[in-house]
Specification:
The complex is a heterodimer of chains A (415) and B (843). Chain A has 415 residues and is mainly α. In chain A, helix 2 packs antiparallel against helix 3 and helix 5 runs parallel beside helix 7. The longest helix of chain A has 34 residues. With 843 residues, chain B is α+β, with helices and mostly antiparallel strands. In chain B, helix 14 packs antiparallel against helix 26, helix 18 runs parallel beside helix 20 and helix 18 packs antiparallel against helix 25. Chain B is elongated. The chains are: A mainly alpha (415), B alpha+beta (843).
């Protein structure tokens, strides 16, 4: 495969002595530009990791809420089918449909916030307007927003090089605040915060200067004291509870810190290799861990399979993310690379937030563990991402594709 | 670049960087997880196991309190209580919640959740009137079950709501202070969310002590209405007092003429022995701190106190013998993971055996009931209160009965009892002047120390003999007054204008006791000196702390701080100084007649007289039977010469049996059916088959009556009122040794002989009725009769039976006719007084 050089006619595309008509040339060009299908690609690593994680999820859900495990299996099947559907479709279609996708998702994000929308359509749960009620399952626009954001950012970054400058980095950062603000308004702080590490990972992969990113992170860290008062009271209470827990205080243990404390206790109770199915179920049931089959599923994994199970989960996530990175490395399509990195970063960030809050390193947020937590909307959207990754991995651009974004030649142009 | 090695471009290096960062994050997460699961895995596992180990406490039983005849005075009994959720207590919250629930059930959950809030409220509105009506109906039924009315119950509910809301305000304020101090919160105080208290979510006890049948009906009704989630009937242990209330027949024919009536009358007696037995109360923080159920960690004291739902003795024996009576809970430990159950059986508390005879206690308490007429201010009692408009006013009274041989207290009665004093229908009408004469639930018999008056005279005689100061047979001439230069103070009670300034003449010790000659005992006291007098009063138990099961008296009562154990007189100057100061001399000689800065309780008085009967052997009085006693009963020999004891007993005998004795009879004005008015003499002690030794005492005390100022001090004029005392001994007729010592006190009651003497006679009749003394009338022992729901005042006695109706002013007339129907004949006086407020001021 040629990298960085001028496009060339592939061997065998046009035979020697063939009469080269205009129509034939167009056909030959299309054929040369058509991605080559490569069944042996890193996308399967993502598929396998996601599948194993999903199975761990089903087993964990069956530990504490066996009655919903069949539904999760059904969701998994739907997710796999959806992923397969996405995988067979050339992902570059998204390049052209990205604007429409962004508009649709943005409208959906605004829609759930509209106060006059009847509660039969947008039913608040625990004070949050995140779900649109559908016949089979409720849908979270923010889940679709993750995909749309990655696609839109990929489209934006693939055709530009100004993010090598500091100002150029600020533009996608500013755009990122739009979905973040809408999702934060739901409110869903955890999901909205996933966009920032995704942005930084994609900028890093796209070739932004590291020092620019570091400066932005530093500025962001410096503005935390200013931004903190803007949080909702319950969000601040969770932060307070976490800090209190770090200090060894017990005053929030029966209140806002209850969920975090129970999750930590059960996580630690699993020891090295866990307590097994029955005892684990007993421990989780009688400790009344809230959201045990959903946001707190990692605690169930830990108590059932112990540190080994948790480590295996993290390794599978690393495998998934490494698969996404390898997919990005294998393809020379800038859009595909950026989308692959974006998906890997998004999933990894969500995993870190979820497992971090379970083990008491981050404040409690309503965040599912990808592929593992119970929930159709979340699981299917995750598998859509896997399908997208597989689609990228399956299609290696041919000789007439756009040059790869290796940005080692950016220096002369932009610096 | 090294030839042959694969090269990487910047993009690939960035990917490696991203992958490296991911690995780094996972390593950090893993370290944290390892800290939880490997380093602290055991601790977290134990913490998680706590939820699997259920610990159920098994209730224990408090020990029974039984009397000297093994009759149960207090015991634990099964009972029931009604508890309601806080939203039901508040009312509107419950109606709202139930209406919404009903509306949701009507439309289905899925549809309900799809409805907008406004429509949900509209649908719930349909059910609100119905649930309001249900709540009102339940309130009425609960009120009926709890023997109250709905308005009273609602008041109770309001109190619960106020208490929880006050608690919430307190907790919220505290949390708000912490919250607002957090950086960033000060800009938006409205963002603070008050906490939800457990008390807002849980149940509150609204009806207590529910009988089983009513509890069943309430529970059935709640099940019928499907309200068990809001209101529930729970098991509740109650402290039953089988002898708390009784109806007692009092024989009117044994009463003094002014209050005598035909046949018997039923007197409702409430709160029997409640001063002694005490009551239960919810635990306070101090109780939990003293003996916590769980102090730290998992270690528990199964006998310890829990802050919620636990009870302890409030006062009396329930309080003092708390550790004796309180049992140890059992425990049922269940491990859900291993399906193992361990049961530690509860240990019931020990029974407490009293020396008290509860039947005797009941009979005596009936006698002290104001309706009988012996403990209310009456003219024939020579009570100065009557002149102040206090005729008929109920007075506090007390009786102590001690078995001489053992020192065991067979009855210790204070009237009114706590239950009687808390009955608003019995409370005297407010009076700005007379309210200082309190009718409150003081345990007068044990804690109400007052000036003893003349009942100390036998002790003075014995003390002087033991000290070698004055032989009991020594004769002293009663000159009518002690100071030759001042005849208005320190006079003998008989030395009055209306008696012709007569005197007792030459008297020996026994007759001085019998006739209660003041001059004799002034003289002896002067020769003894204040220091020796004080010392001897102490030896007889004045100012002493009763022990042997009566330890609660070791703590001062709040009603008479510092005065509770009685007070021995202070040490006065020596004789030479006395001679230089009439005032100081006056104080010393007054000790001989029990009229100085000294005080004791009826219990101490009875025990001092029991000491006389034992020939000078002092025993600690004990209210607890030997089986339940914590401390040994101490005894000490006062080493009193037998001749002095004999002289004292002779004097006490003559006081009751000789017409000249102050305890022999009372005289009062009587009106015959034909309207003829004449003076009538009545023998005080009428019981057959017994011998009585006794001494009356009328102890003066200067009291300021009237309204109080801002500091709470009384501001009215000073009046001299008198406490009526009788102390004596009683035994079978012909027996040289009495069996029981009796002390009677009627606070502000007037003449001791007139007010306390007839009560002592009733006590003796009660001793006979309970079989503790031979003889007695035909009345059956106390029957358990249902008490009327509201107390009714018995009708006034028939006019022809009452010569001096209650409240009628009959001036005290000591020395009046000794023969009934012969007015004007000089007779034996019944009164002993030191100085009359009308006849001469105190120095």
């Amino acid at each position: 495969m040629s990298r960085g050089g001028a496009p060339s006619i592939a061997r065998g595309a046009v035979g020697v002595g063939d009469t080269l008509t205009a129509a034939g040339l167009r056909t030959a060009t299309r054929r040369l530009a058509r991605p080559r299908i490569s069944l042996l690609n890193a996308g399967w690593l993502c598929v396998v990791s996601a599948l194993l994680l999903s199975l761990i999820g089903v087993a964990s859900i069956a530990t504490t809420a066996p009655e919903v495990a069949p539904r999760q299996i059904a969701f998994l099947c739907m997710g796999i089918v959806a992923a397969a559907g996405v995988a067979v479709v050339p992902y570059r279609i998204l390049e052209y449909t990205a604007p429409a996708l962004v508009v649709i998702v943005a409208l959906m994000l605004v829609f759930v916030l509209l106060p006059f929308v009847p509660e039969s359509i947008v039913r608040p749960r625990n004070g949050a307007r995140r779900w649109i009620s559908l016949p089979l399952m409720d849908m979270q626009p923010s889940e679709l927003a993750k995909i749309a954001y990655i696609v839109a950012l990929g489209v934006y970054l693939k055709s530009r090089r100004n993010y090598r400058r500091f100002v150029g980095v600020l533009k996608p950062l500013a755009v990122t605040f739009i979905p973040m603000a809408l999702i934060l308004k739901e409110p869903d702080l955890g999901t909205s915060l996933l966009f920032l590490p995704t942005l930084f990972a994609m900028l890093l992969a796209a070739g932004s200067r590291i020092r620019h990113l570091v400066v932005i992170v530093a500025i962001g860290a410096a503005t935390i004291p200013v931004l903190y008062p803007m949080l909702e009271p319950h969000q601040k209470a969770r932060v307070t509870a976490l800090v209190s827990q770090w200090k060894g205080e017990t005053r929030h243990l029966q209140g806002v810190g209850y969920q975090g404390a129970k999750a930590m206790t059960l996580t630690g109770a699993g020891g090295i290799d866990g307590v097994g199915l029955e005892h684990g179920r007993t421990l989780v049931d009688h400790n009344h861990l809230p959201e045990e089959h959903n946001d707190m599923i990692f605690a169930v994994i830990s108590v059932r399979w112990g540190f080994v199970g948790a480590l295996a989960t993290w390794i599978l996530f690393l495998g998934l993310c490494f698969g996404a990175i390898l997919v990005a490395a294998q393809t020379n399509d800038p859009f595909g690379r950026l989308v692959a990195i974006g998906i890997g970063a998004m999933l990894f960030a969500q995993m870190v937030v979820n497992t971090g809050m379970t083990i008491g390193m981050l404040p409690i947020t309503g965040m599912t563990l990808p592929f593992v937590s119970y929930g159709g909307s979340s699981l299917i959207s995750m598998w859509l991402m896997i399908g997208l990754l597989l689609s990228i991995g399956l299609r290696w651009p041919q000789h007439l594709s756009r040059e790869a974004r290796d940005f080692d030649h950016f220096t002369a142009e932009t610096d | 670049m090294i030839p042959g090695r694969p090269t990487t471009n910047p993009f690939q290096r960035r990917l490696v960087l991203i992958a490296g960062l991911m690995v780094l994050v996972v390593v950090v997460l893993s370290i944290r997880h390892a800290w939880l699961s490997v380093a602290n895995g055991d601790a977290n596992y134990r913490a998680a196991l706590v939820a699997l180990r259920s610990r159920t406490l098994l209730p224990t039983w408090r020990g029974q309190i039984v009397d000297a005849e093994e009759r149960i005075v207090a015991r634990d009994a099964a009972g029931y209580a009604v508890e309601a959720r806080f939203n039901f207590v508040v009312g509107s919250r419950w109606v709202n919640a139930m209406s919404r629930l009903a509306a949701e059930r009507e439309v289905g959950r899925a549809r309900w959740r799809a409805l907008p809030s406004t429509e949900q409220e509209a649908r719930a509105d349909v059910f609100r009137p119905e649930f309001r009506a249900v709540r009102e109906a339940i309130m009425r039924e609960l009120a009926l079950a709890g023997d109250t009315d709905a308005a009273t119950l609602q008041t109770s509910f309001d109190g619960i709501a106020r208490r929880v809301q006050s608690m919430k305000a307190h907790v919220s304020a505290r949390q708000y202070r912490t919250w607002i101090a957090t950086p960033g919160n000060e800009d938006d105080p409205a963002a603070f969310r008050p906490p939800k208290l457990t008390e807002e979510l849980g149940f509150h006890r609204v009806v207590d002590d529910l009988a089983a049948d009513r509890a069943y009906l309430v529970r059935a009704r709640l099940q019928e209405l499907q309200l068990e989630d809001s209101i529930r009937v729970v098991d509740s242990r109650i402290r039953a007092r089988p002898w708390n209330e009784r109806m007692v027949e009092v024989d009117g024919s044994t009463l003094p003429d002014p209050v005598r009536y035909e046949g018997t009358r039923e007197i409702p007696v409430r709160g029997i022995a409640d001063h002694i037995v005490g009551r239960m109360r919810p635990v306070w923080r101090a109780d939990v701190e003293r003996r916590p159920y769980q102090s730290s960690g998992d270690a528990v004291d199964l006998g310890g106190y829990r802050a919620v739902g636990d009870r302890t003795g409030s006062y009396g024996l329930e309080r003092v013998r708390e550790d004796h009576l309180r049992g140890t809970r059992g425990e049922r430990r269940e491990a859900r993971d291993t399906d193992t159950i361990q049961v530690l059986e509860p240990q019931p508390g020990d029974d407490l055996h009293l020396a008290i005879d509860i039947e005797l206690q009941t009979l005596i308490q009936a006698v002290l009931h104001p309706d009988v007429g012996l403990t209310s201010a009456q003219a024939w009692h020579s009570n100065p209160l009557v002149d102040l408009g206090g005729g008929g006013r109920p007075l506090r009274a007390a009786v102590a009965v001690i078995e001489i041989e053992t020192g065991e207290v067979r009855a210790l009665v204070s009237g009114p009892s706590l239950a009687e004093a808390s009955d608003p229908t019995r409370r005297p009408a407010p009076d700005p002047v007379l309210d200082a004469v309190r009718w409150s639930p003081l345990d007068l018999a044990a804690e109400g120390a007052v000036v003893p008056g003349s009942i100390v005279k036998p002790l003075v005689l014995m003390s002087a003999a033991a000290a070698g100061v004055s032989e009991p047979g020594r004769e002293i001439e009663c000159t009518g007054h002690y100071f030759s230069h001042n005849q208005t103070v320190a006079r003998c009670w008989i030395y009055r204008e209306r008696y012709g300034l007569t005197t007792h003449g030459q008297l020996a010790g026994p007759d001085a006791i019998a006739q209660s000659c003041n001059i004799y005992f002034h003289r002896v006291a002067s020769e003894m000196g204040a220091e020796r007098m004080s010392d001897w009063f102490s030896r007889f138990g004045m100012g002493d702390v009763p022990r042997a099961g009566m330890a609660w008296y070791e703590s001062p009562t709040e009603l008479i701080p510092g005065h509770w154990r009685g007070a021995v007189p202070g040490v006065a100057p020596d004789g030479s100084e006395i001679r230089r100061s009439d005032a100081r001399a006056f104080r010393t000689i007054m000790l001989g007649t029990g009229q100085e800065a000294m005080a004791w309780s009826p219990l101490q008085a009875a025990n001092a007289y029991a000491t006389i009967a034992r020939g000078g052997l002092h025993l600690d009085p004990t209210i607890v039977a030997p089986a339940s006693r914590r401390e040994p009963q101490l005894e000490r020999d006062l080493e009193i010469p037998p001749a002095a004891v004999d002289a004292a007993l002779t004097g006490l005998w003559r006081s009751v049996h000789n017409p000249e004795g102050t305890g022999h009879h009372i005289t009062h004005r009587s009106v015959d059916p034909d309207g003829t008015e004449h003076r009538r003499r009545e023998i005080i002690f009428t019981a057959d088959g017994v011998d009585v030794w006794g001494k009356t005492g009328t102890a003066q005390e200067a009291v300021r009556l009237g309204p109080t100022n801002e500091a709470g001090a009384l501001t009215g004029p000073v009046h001299t009122l008198t406490h009526g005392w009788f102390a004596g001994l009683v035994g079978p007729e012909g027996s040289p040794e009495p069996l029981f010592a009796i002390a009677v006190l009627v606070e502000w009651g007037g003449s001791g002989g007139r007010v306390a003497g007839p009560i002592a006679n009733q006590v003796i009749l009660a001793l006979q009725r309970t079989g503790r003394l031979p003889g007695g009338d035909a009345l059956e022992p106390i029957e358990i009769l249902p008490l009327p729901s509201t107390w009714t005042v018995p009708e006034a006695p028939e006019a022809e039976d009452v010569a001096s109706p209650t409240g009628e002013q009959v001036p005290g007339t000591p020395g009046e006719p000794s023969v009934p129907g012969t007015p004007g004949t000089p007779g034996a006086p019944t009164e002993v007084s030191v100085v009359s407020a009308r006849e001469g001021p105190r120095p």
